[in-house]
Amino acid sequence: MGARIDVCDNSGAKRIKIFSVKGGKTVKRRYPAASVGDLVNASIIKGKPGMKKQVVQAVIVRQRRPYRRLTGERIKFEDNAAVVLRDEKGAPKGTIFKGAIAKEAADRWPEIAKVASIVV
After folding, report:
1. What's the pTM?
2. Which candidate, 20, 34, 31, places its Cα nearest to that of 81?
């Protein structure tokens, strides 16, 4: 929470600031953490004119910190990235994604998987 993350689609937003995690369960007084595939509420801090300070929903699609898959392998990406959503169902606002999308995010959000060109 409070993280500033790059946006990897062509929705017009360049950078967002996460201020809450949807469905995040945590300990009392601890900041909720978001991982790959999580839905977050964020505000746009850099992007096209008129988009700044807009509140949007986004899905985390890449994270720099290594995480473990069910197969036992650990995976990490070069950067942290998110995709801005158009609605609650998971339809992305952009039509092109820059870079790879994590398999966990693609499995959980099929609308994002349709648009993604590379799923790792």
Report:
1. 0.91
2. 34
How many whole angstroms separate alpha carbon 79 and alpha carbon 58? 16
Instruction: Say if residues 64 and 77 touch (Cβ distance below 8 Å).
Output: yes
**Three-class SS string for the chain?**
CCCEEEECECCCEEEEEEEEECCCCCCCCCCCCCCCCCEEEEEEEEECCCCCCCEEEEEEEECCCCEECCCCCEECCCCCEEEEECCCCCCECCCCECCCECHHHHHHCHHHHHHCCCEC
Distance of alpha carbon 7 from alpha carbon 59, whole angstroms: 10
Q: Residue written as tokens 């949807």?
A: 22
Walk along the chain (120 residues) and give the pLDDT tens digit of each residue: 789 999 999 999 999 999 999 987 889 888 889 999 999 999 999 999 999 999 999 999 999 999 999 999 999 999 999 999 998 888 999 999 999 999 999 999 999 999 999 999
4-115 is a CATH 3.40.50.1220 domain: no
